[in-house]
Automatic annotation (TrEMBL):
Compositionally biased residues, Basic residues: 1-12
Pfam family name, one: Brix
Name recorded for this polypeptide: Unnamed protein product
One example of a Gene Ontology biological process annotation: ribosomal large subunit assembly
Basic and acidic residues bias (residue ranges): 357-378, 388-397
Superkingdom to which the source organism belongs: Eukaryota
GO molecular function: rRNA binding
GO CC, any one term: preribosome, large subunit precursor
Acidic residues: bias regions: 398-429
Region span, Disordered: 1-21, 265-305, 357-435
Compositionally skewed regions (Low complexity) per UniProt: 286-296
Length: 435
């Protein structure tokens, strides 16, 4: 099989700095959500929606914890973590969106959701797209409707707007090509309830300023499996191209509104007018060479009218903001939609969080000191073994008491770890397994 040609002049590979700035996401579900087949399919549909900068083939295990994914997010360059969970008692589904590596985390209640297959069932003409289709080679266009201006919005709404905008790379009007935008992610906020409706569409564009016959000829260039139209009954080509009764790009059963018609700059390379043989062979100073015919004259690019049509492909979700936490799925609650606290309660909680933070820092320092002490013991043990081996090779006698020092690092395991309320010593492991 022949090797596929790669365009090196137009397909420029991005640098490492550009790749590091592109936001990457990871969509997971843990706990009881692993047993819900419908929620598992929702996770897969959400991964398709977040393509191409997401872990599309990620597989979770029952033994995996949230900490495992948080630890691996740093080396993999993940900037957004989306976690689907289900309550064991109530059965409610929640979506947590965390900004890596230090937060914040926004928790949404998924009131309603529809899978991609459900949306394809009730559409008259569904769009069948696989996860490896061309539409998923570029991120979707984020459209936010009903949100307040960030300058005038409340702190929680302003934070939510920033989190949604940071999920996808920013679009530059000067650098971004219109043809690369294939999908639209619509976030519509209800101002009365505050709920957010999430919709996912694919963009279809069709020519409007040409007849149906010309449109068929244009599409044959991109779709080689289509056959040429039958021109046996046509006496002149003008009957095909200049037919005033030919239908436009869309058929009569799906009429195009005036708002859906836009003018798009044609990105095809400019055509050049070749030199004529008479002009190239004419002598210098002749009348034919008085005009500028030494170089080929490019034809100016022209704008074409196209009709834009959006087809929903899913998933569809209705999100309700519950709370916003300071860290990654843990930490101080900065906003809660159901619970309100007074200033005294907030100050008391701040003191509790400050005490917990000090205790956590102290435990971390103690752990680091223990690890350093343990590494020193291991290094000393290796040195003693090397010295003993070298002494044996030289034929010297080695005292057996030296080996007793090799078990110094096991002394900590034999000693008890904690003291209970009665003052008696016990092992932590034995205490945990006694329940």
């Amino acid at each position: 099989m022949a090797k596929r040609r790669q365009k090196k002049r137009t397909h420029v590979k991005p640098t490492e700095d550009q790749l590091s700035k592109v936001p990457k996401s990871m969509v997971i579900h843990l706990g009881t959500a692993l047993q819900n087949h419908s929620l598992t399919q929702l996770v897969k549909d959400t991964r398709n929606m977040m393509q191409p900068h997401t872990a599309i083939n990620l597989r979770e295990r029952k033994s995996n914890k949230l900490k495992d994914f948080v630890v691996m997010a740093g080396p993999l360059g993940v900037s957004q973590l989306m976690l689907f969970s289900q309550n064991e008692d109530s059965g409610l589904t929640h979506l947590k969106m965390a900004t890596m590596p230090r937060g914040p985390t926004a928790t949404f209640k998924v009131s309603e959701y529809s899978l991609c297959k459900d949306i394809a069932n009730f559409l008259k003409k569904p769009k069948s797209i696989g996860k490896s289709s061309v539409e998923f080679t570029s991120p979707p266009l984020l459209v936010m409707n009903g949100f307040t201006n960030p300058k005038d919005a409340e702190p929680q709404e302003k934070l939510i707007i920033t989190m949604f905008q940071s999920m996808f790379p920013p679009i530059s009007p000067q650098d971004t090509k219109v043809d690369t935008i294939k999908r639209v992610l619509l976030l519509s906020r209800d101002k009365e309830t505050g709920n957010i409706d999430l919709r996912h569409y694919v963009i279809d564009t069709k020519l409007v300023d040409v007849s149906r016959n010309v449109k068929k000829l244009v599409n044959i260039k991109k779709q080689l499996n289509k056959k040429l139209p039958n021109l046996s009954k046509v006496k002149d080509v003008a009957d095909v191209i200049l037919d005033p009764y030919a239908q436009a790009g869309f058929t009569s059963d799906s009429e195009v509104e005036d708002d859906a018609i836009v003018e798009v700059q044609d990105n095809e390379p400019a055509l050049t007018r070749p030199k004529r043989k008479a002009e190239s062979q004419a002598p210098e100073g002749s009348a034919s060479t008085t005009t500028a015919t030494d170089a080929s004259v490019p034809v100016q690019d022209h704008k074409r009218k196209k009709a834009v049509k959006l087809t929903e492909i899913g998933p569809r979700m209705k999100l309700e903001l519950v709370k916003i936490e300071e860290g990654v799925c843990s930490g101080k609650v900065m906003y809660h939609s159901y619970i309100t606290k007074s200033k005294k309660e907030i100050n008391k909680l701040d003191q509790i969080h400050a005490i917990k933070k000090k205790e956590k820092d102290a435990r971390r320092k103690q752990q680091e000191a223990n690890i350093a002490k343990k590494n020193e013991k291991k290094l000393a043990k290796k040195q003693r073994r090397a010295e003993r081996k070298a002494a044996l090779e030289r034929g010297e006698k080695v005292e057996e008491d030296d080996e007793s020092s090799d078990d110094d690092d096991n002394e900590d395991e034999d000693e008890p770890d904690e003291v209970d309320e009665d003052g008696e010593l016990f092992d932590v492991d034995d205490y945990q397994h006694s329940d």
